[in-house]
Design goal:
Layout (H helix, E strand, L loop, with lengths): L13 E6 L8 E4 L13 E6 L2 E9 L15 E4 L4 H13 L4 H7 L21 H13 L2 E4 L8 H8 L4 E4 L3 H13 L4 E3 L4 H6 L3 E4 L13 E5 L16 H12 L3 E4 L5 H6 L1 E3 L3 H7 L2 E6 L12 H9 L3 E4 L6 E6 L15 E3 L5 E3 L5 E2 L11 E6 L1 H12 L3 E4 L11 E4 L2 H5 L5 E4 L3 H4 L6 H16 L7 E6 L5 H7 L4 H13 L7 E6 L3 H6 L5 E6 L2 E6 L2 H10 L8 E4 L5
Parallel strand pairs: 6-11, 6-12, 7-9, 7-10, 8-9, 10-11, 13-23, 14-21, 14-22, 20-21, 22-23
Antiparallel strand pairs: 1-2, 1-4, 3-4, 3-5, 15-19, 16-17, 17-18, 24-26, 24-27, 25-26
Helix pairs in contact: 1-2, 1-7, 3-4, 14-15, 15-16
The chain binds a DNA duplex through strand 1, strand 2 and strand 3.
DNA sequence: CGGACAAGCTGA
DNA sequence: CAGCTTGTCCGG
């Protein structure tokens, strides 16, 4: 169309928009009307008309050449600020890396409520200190991928202050409690902090430190100079639902794209972390001081019938202040046997083991069938508790300790005010500190049928060591086990995590497990069709409705997953599963 | 996701 | 063959 006044034809401004509709993983082009022109950029949250209805969405590309033959609609309105353009690009990479929908990542990267305007930026670095020099040297020696192995009781604030001294810093931690504590510490040191998601607008405007849980890795952070991940080994950095993205992996990619350092701090770096970055280790004495004294109770000589309580445990219960006992089994008893005929209590319907529920009935953990506590073979009502749970342990511990014992599991919301507590590993995440921690049956962790069992066990010991404080605070961690020489136990005992990761890396190599290979779990109604079409990867399964896809590296795995068109129906792809 | 539309089924 | 259900396709 020629301009009637004879001037050059104005080129219409066109943007690509990803709609915020879970089932659509596609970009659509829209015209930018003149009255919105100044408020639209890559990342902006907009509303658009799609197929007759208005939906939200994100501008992901600007200056798109208009394609002939398509009658474009205009953007309906601008909702507000969205992720900056570098993060928008990162979401595209992430949708490939975790075989997920772009909108899932864009939503995580956006403010929870509409942000119409930004406040003034909040800059202000802390005064240069001793830690700063240590960090600078480590970064100079190890380039941009740094794994900082700091023991559990080590203070993390100095690391953040050192990083913030070099420029605006993005920090992620696994849990809300740690985020709140660090934010308070930084503010006390005079460092302006934006805690996301609440302070998203401040983060977008600019702040010396942008801080939050794993989703904060998607937060805006203008002029970011470093990304810091705290407790990089923690499984909570990985999202549970698909796409199963992992905070430290995103942090590493974001930093690499920005050409800035990524610093991952952990008392017990995983073999994945070690294969990614260069590890910096404190002196032997500093690391030893930062782990708690570990008491390993070797139960190999003990009669299996003496139960969960060694003499040293009883002593700990009676002499220490606040004692926390960890037993990763909920309920009263998970396995029972008839004291008369010795038969195991099993389910009438499916034959599986039955557990004792709070009402005194036996209920099946597989099919849910319930029946009275009577032996099916001889009719006796006297059933022995072979594998007790937290509820029963609480009663027995109370008798042994001679003082009140409280119970905490993932379900209990309140916190009992008893000197001794027993619970599943949820207790370790619920309490701020303790004087002593006892793992009643640590073999359950050490020998779990999961490929990360050893690392998970060491992470629990690290968590416990942090709760009781380092050696100087006199906190104690007691571990009851029949595998006292297990690498995870030895690593915590000697305050040397490489005792575990060294052999662990070799085992993983032999078994062709990550980080030497890349895995994905595929499940859902459409999974059979999908996995049948995969090419260039190994497919195993199905095992309980799930297929395991294995490739020599992520590049090959994700290329294969991306090259098969998604069939209709439900499909869940879990890249880098934590367990399978 | 949700509307449009085509194909398939039913009853008169 | 109208009227309805079910399934597949596609959106700028």
């Amino acid at each position: 169309m020629a301009d009637p006044r004879g001037g050059p034809t104005p080129v219409p401004r066109v943007v690509s928009v990803v709609p915020d509709v879970p089932a659509i993983n596609k970009e659509f082009d829209y015209l930018v009307p003149d009255h919105l022109a100044g408020r639209v950029r890559v990342g902006t949250v907009v509303r658009v008309e799609l197929h007759g209805r208005r939906v939200g969405g994100w501008v992901v590309r600007d200056g798109v050449p208009p394609r002939a033959g398509i009658n474009l609609r205009s953007l309906s309105r601008v909702t507000g600020w969205g992720p900056p353009s570098d993060v928008v690009e990162l979401t595209q990479w992430a949708s490939w890396r975790w075989a997920g929908r772009r909108s899932a990542f864009l939503r995580t990267a956006s403010p929870e409520t509409r942000v119409a305007a930004l406040p003034p930026p909040a800059w202000g670095a802390p005064p240069a200190g001793g830690s700063r020099q240590v960090l600078d040297e480590a970064l100079a020696a190890h380039a941009r991928r740094l794994v900082l192995r700091l023991p559990p009781a080590a203070a993390l604030l100095p690391v953040l202050l050192a990083a913030a001294g070099r420029g605006p810093t993005l920090v992620i931690a696994p849990a809300v409690a740690a985020v709140a504590a660090l934010a308070a510490g930084l503010r006390q040191a005079g460092v302006p902090v934006a805690v996301v998601p609440g302070d998203w607008a401040q983060a977008a405007a600019g702040a010396q430190v942008v801080l939050g849980t794993r989703a904060a890795v998607w937060a805006p952070c203008p002029d970011v100079a470093a990304v810091v991940v705290l407790d990089g080994h923690d499984e909570r950095l990985q999202q549970g639902q698909a796409p199963t993205w992992n905070g430290w992996v995103v942090a590493a990619e974001r930093a690499a794209r920005a050409g800035i350092p990524c610093i991952v701090v952990s008392p017990c770096p995983t073999v994945e972390l070690l294969s990614w970055g260069c590890v910096t280790v404190p002196s032997r004495s500093v690391e030893r001081q930062g782990w708690a004294a570990l008491e390993v109770v070797d139960r190999r000589r003990d009669d299996p019938r003496t139960g969960l309580y060694s003499a040293r445990l009883v002593n700990l219960l009676r002499t220490s202040g606040r004692v926390v006992c960890v037993l990763n089994r909920k309920g009263r008893a998970r396995l029972l046997a008839c004291t008369g005929c010795g038969e195991l209590a099993r389910c009438e319907v499916c034959g599986g083991a039955v557990a004792l529920d709070p009402t005194g009935q036996l209920s099946c953990t597989h099919c849910g069938a319930s029946r009275p506590a009577v032996c099916l073979t001889c009719g006796s009502t006297r059933l022995g508790l072979l594998r007790i749970g937290v509820s029963r342990a609480r009663e027995e511990l109370e008798a042994l300790a001679g003082r009140p014992v409280g119970e905490i599991t993932a379900e209990t919301s309140w916190q009992p005010d008893a000197p001794v507590l027993v619970g599943t590993e949820a207790v370790l995440y619920r309490l701020p500190q303790a004087d002593a921690i006892a793992f009643l049956d640590f073999d359950q962790e050490l020998l779990a049928a999961r490929f990360r069992a050893g690392e998970e066990a060491l992470a629990l010991l690290a968590r416990a060591a942090r709760l009781v404080g380092g050696r100087e605070r006199g906190g104690r961690v007691l571990v009851q086990t029949r595998v006292p020489h297990h690498d995870a136990v030895q690593a915590a005992l000697l305050a040397d995590p490489s005792r575990l990761t060294g052999p662990e890396a070799e085992v993983r190599r032999t078994l062709r497990l990550p980080p030497w290979t890349a895995l994905a779990l595929v499940s859902g109604q459409a999974a059979p069709t999908f996995v049948a079409a995969l090419d260039g990867v190994e497919v195993a399964g199905p095992a309980s409705g799930r297929w395991l896809v294995k490739a020599s590296d992520h590049e090959r795995l994700l290329t294969a997953l991306a090259s098969v068109p998604r069939p209709g129906g439900r499909l869940r792809i879990e890249v880098d599963p934590l367990r399978f």
